[in-house]
């Protein structure tokens, strides 16, 4: 199945697929506003702003699976992201990223780009997946990888 065919729900409750991002480079991130890594929202937004005109987008998928660090409703998450971090990149409804009820998109991402020692499981919030213009998952980044560290990989895919 193509990454563009996965059904997703926007943070505002609209059902769609990732088809609008076909031909673009994407950085797909599981997020949580209550996480110690939440300051990365600012770096993610900077990447989104700096490269969106060249065909790049950050996509945020909130999850409460790690320490219940995303406690609010989708509406509250959207408001927190906008007010506290200035986020305007696409955000989606809260999902699970691990386990039998993990969202199919994240099952695909973790199958295509495994973690340390070949692990599929996502270890924490702000795990990032870089997807090329053809919809291929090209790299996985750990929670500790700052967005600025990913910039050179994004630039390569955009050229």
UniProtKB/TrEMBL annotation:
Fetch the CDD domains from UniProt. Answer: GSH_Peroxidase
One Pfam family recorded for the sequence: GSHPx
One GO BP annotation here? Answer: cellular response to oxidative stress
- Catalytic center residues: 35
Keywords tagged on the record:
Oxidoreductase, Peroxidase
Q: Name one GO molecular function term.
A: peroxidase activity
Regarding protein family, the annotation reads:
Belongs to the glutathione peroxidase family.
- Protein name, entry field: Glutathione peroxidase
Gene source species? Paenibacillus paeoniae
């Amino acid at each position: 199945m193509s990454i563009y065919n996965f059904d997703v729900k926007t943070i505002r409750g609209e059902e769609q697929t990732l088809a609008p991002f076909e031909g673009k480079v994407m950085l797909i991130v599981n997020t949580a506003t209550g996480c110690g890594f939440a300051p990365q929202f600012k770096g993610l937004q900077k990447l989104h702003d700096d490269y969106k005109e060249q065909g790049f987008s950050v996509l945020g998928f909130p999850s409460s699976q790690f320490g219940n660090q995303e406690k609010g409703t989708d509406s509250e998450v959207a408001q927190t992201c906008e007010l506290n971090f200035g986020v305007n990149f696409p955000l989606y409804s809260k999902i699970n990223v691990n386990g039998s009820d993990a969202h199919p998109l994240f099952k695909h991402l973790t199958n295509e780009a495994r973690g340390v020692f070949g692990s599929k499981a996502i270890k924490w919030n702000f795990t990032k997946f870089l997807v090329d213009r053809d919809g291929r998952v090209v790299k996985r980044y750990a929670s500790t990888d700052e967005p600025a560290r990913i910039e050179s990989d994004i630039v390569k895919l955009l050229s």
